[in-house]
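P.,

For your records, the input lines for the assembly:
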Amino acid sequence: MQVIESPQEMQNWSRAQSRAGFRIGLVPTMGFLHEGHLSLVRKARELCDAVVVSIFVNPIQFGEGEDYDRYPRDLSRDLGLLQKEGVDAVFTPTVKSMYPEKEQTTVEPVAGMENKMCGRNRPGHFRGVTTVVSKLFNICLPDVAFFGQKDAQQALIIEKMVRDLNFPVRIVKGEIIREPDGLAMSSRNVYLSPEDREKATVLYRSLLMARDLINRGEREPSRVREAMLEMIKQVNGAQVDYVEIYNAFDLSELEEIRGQVLLALAVRFGTTRLIDNLLVEV
Amino acid sequence: MQVIESPQEMQNWSRAQSRAGFRIGLVPTMGFLHEGHLSLVRKARELCDAVVVSIFVNPIQFGEGEDYDRYPRDLSRDLGLLQKEGVDAVFTPTVKSMYPEKEQTTVEPVAGMENKMCGRNRPGHFRGVTTVVSKLFNICLPDVAFFGQKDAQQALIIEKMVRDLNFPVRIVKGEIIREPDGLAMSSRNVYLSPEDREKATVLYRSLLMARDLINRGEREPSRVREAMLEMIKQVNGAQVDYVEIYNAFDLSELEEIRGQVLLALAVRFGTTRLIDNLLVEV
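Structure tokens returned:
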């Protein structure tokens, strides 16, 4: 397994793989890997000849006062896990090599997909994501790139970017991997105190309850939303960031629940912000 | 020579060339080709194995009230010229195939390079350029892309974009090709009346005069600028859009004329806007 720090070297490596006729699969991550990431790596292994995992905590997708500095990092543990999965190359650039100049050309997502859900309280977050993903695509030259469905809005914004800018990359989404009690796996789960860890199951429980409501015939988005808010309110210390229900393809508003629907929420426990979502087909 | 309309087909063609080990050269144009374009095609022929010329009048780089609708077009003449140059493929997409969705992810140049010169009176122009060039790079997959030095600001903004977003593309700039009387070749020259065509030589004449001033020791940007303005003012009907002097690498302001300096100007004759520039080394 190659561990490559320099963007130029990484691009050379990828170009050589590509010239040799190998299909490259890229799994972009911020490290501190869990089963969610590893399930994407296994998918990549299945569909591609050469698997690249990038590990880069991208500063420009964090807002002021967010957890960039304390975001959990453990490179040597990550490398051990990836080695076991048979990954071909790990790309671990420095911030300086990714952003060498003071000002930076950016990639701007469409407003209608960016300014809601995680984008509402994290202005500039998705611009940071589309910009770094464009860079990673151009450096790692993947034929296929793998994103987790846990970041549903991110995956949709990246799919839109790939269509709009004609990136020669196929996007594959991996389903949410959960702990036995239903909590979606996330690098940020380590922030939780044992009490909050237990309370955090309310995210998934509220989603399952909402799906139940819908399956029993509820078609009014506001009523489903209110039932979820009500359930979360019962949990001491859980602060709702958002609970939203959108068209699952373009995040447009719904007059009634119909077709492929995305139920999504973000909840804070102290300074830790967790997200989760569920796709429901009506 | 292949003439390809569909972005998907173009991408397939380019990918096949690339897989076969050929170096692809791309010359992006808006058509109505002149010697300036053809000199870039010849450079591409020299440096690459497969030459692609794109012809696309890109609506999103034109502002309201600009000349998008009347921009000169003559595809069959263009194809004849390119055939003679031994071009391998011409990419002629429709607007609908390039912008199929209502809203579009864009590529945003850095403000400090965009908001001056041609960007000052054409807001959004360079965002349209960087967005379409990103699309063309992702569709045509060039190893080398060729841009004319006549659009000096455009070339610098694209070079910055390539560095910032790590496009695996080398940028080669071709010098300005001029008519015998010095007028820089431009598809827009056909708009000029015979009288204005003659007057239009003032752009290049003012640049040569400015270079002379500098060569004779002038180091004060404002004095060089004023001398150019004064000369243009003598020409009846010539309306200055801008006359500017910048650092030739990053378009930063100059306290004194020193190093590689870009002298650039835009002048209107009636509704026709012409640009020109000169690099001066001190």
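Two observations worth noting. Chain A has two domains: 2-174, 187-277. The first strand of chain A starts at residue 2 and ends at 4.

Regards
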